[in-house]
Structure prediction request, 201 residues.
Amino acid sequence: MNNKKNTVNKIELGIGEALLVIDIQRDFLPGGHLAVADGEQVVPVMNEYIDCFIRRQLPVFATRDWHPKNHYSFIRQGGIWPEHCVADSSGAEFANNLYLPAEVCIISKGEKADTDGYSGFNNPALKQQLEALNVSRLFIGGLATDYCVLNTVCDALDLNYRVFLLTDAMRAVNRHERDGERAVKKMLLKGAIPISFEMIK
Prediction:
C-alpha cells in the first residue's frame, strides 16, 4: 500500500504492546475437522513471535474456539461449519508444537451455542486484561485470516488499538475463492499495519 501510515520499516518492541495468537488449534490444522490449507506453517513463525514477546516480558494472549456440541455454526445445527473445537475435545487443543509457556494468557471464545465467537473480543476478559496492562498496540496473527483474525483485528481497531498484522503468521480458510485476500485488504484499509517477523528489532 502507498498509504504511509500503513507502512513501517523496523519495530522496537516496548511497554504497551501485546501479542494476540488467534486459534492455532488442532481442528484447524491438517487432519482436523476444519483444516486450514497450510495452517501448520504458521506455528514455527508464531513461535518466534511468542518467544520474542516472552523474552521482553511483554504480554501474550492465545485465543481458542471453545464451542458447545450444539453450537449454531455447526452443519447439523443448520450452520456452515463442520463440528470443530468442541470444548475439552482433542480438536480444541492448541497445536502440539505451539510454544505456550505459563505466562501466556488463554482466552476462550464461542462458548455459547448462539454466538459465533469469531473475535477474541467476544470474551470481555480480553479487553479488560489489555486495559489493566495499559496495552495500546496489538500484534495479531493466527487462524484463520478471513474469520477469527479478521474479526479480532476489526474489533481491535474499533476499540482504538494500533494493530500490526502478522502477515507471515496467518492463513485463510478461503471458503469462497480469495476470501483471504479480501480479508487482508479490509484490515489494511481499516488501519492495520502489515509486518513480518524480520521487521522486529
Notes: The mean pLDDT is 95. The radius of gyration is 16 Å.
